[in-house]
Amino acid sequence: MTCAGSLAVEERVHDKIVLLFVEGSRDRVFYEGLFERFLRASRIGIEDVGGALKRYIDRFGRRFVSVLAVEGALVVVINCRGYNGLRGVFRDLLRDEEQLAELIQEGLRAVVLVADADKDLVESTRGIVSSLGLELHLRGDIARITVQDAELDVTMIRQGLERERSTRELEDLVDEIASRAYSRIARAISQLEKHLGGKLDSKQRASIYAAVLVRDKGVEGLIPKLLREASEGDLEIARSILNKLVQAVR
Questions:
Q1: Cα gap 229→220, rounded to integer Å
Q2: Which ranges of 18-135 would DSSP assign to H, the alpha helix?
Q3: pTM
Q4: Are residues 147 and 176 in the same domain?
Q5: 233 domain-assigned
Q6: H or E stretch including 200?
Q7: What is the pLDDT of residues 7-57, one digit of tens each?
């Protein structure tokens, strides 16, 4: 990256930082893709991030972190390796007062927590904040935490669907988008289900789409293709999630 590019990153760091914690690698790829498709996000090399944010990112390892420039904000997407990992990462962020003060000074203003729909993010957040003795104002799935004489906004996103063959996980969205974008494959899967005499769940269906469309790259390889090629109408199922991301970034 050129010197001018490095200066641009430095400006974004001081403008606004958003930490986005997700459960797994597929989730990280999905949210990267949403930001790139709808908010024209550009990827930033981790080596071009400095200060307390760089020290924080280094704790996780590069293959678990993505950094995106999104509308003047710096969004850091972190794979927390499971729901318990996500809760632990969020708790550790709030508990390390010195580190948190440095991150806030550099521009940390918002945290986004993303978990599957079978998890109770609101109660988890309430419990973590209460155990640390911090002040919490909760309104629906958005919280405001008073910490270090500053306010930190926390947006909670539950992904997954409540419908036939759903798993209440990210694959519900992947299956729904793929079914809309690739109707011929969807019809073939329906015929397979008739032959089998039962419905496949969204994870099984997503794996079939991946096998046909991206071969050996799996569902994690299918997700970027979907988010690049599907129409906005096909992606409407993710609209509520996108709206929350936009609110957190702006």
A1: 15
A2: 25-39, 51-58, 83-95, 97-106, 121-131
A3: 0.91
A4: no
A5: yes
A6: none
A7: 333 434 447 999 999 999 999 999 999 999 999 999 999 989 999 999 999
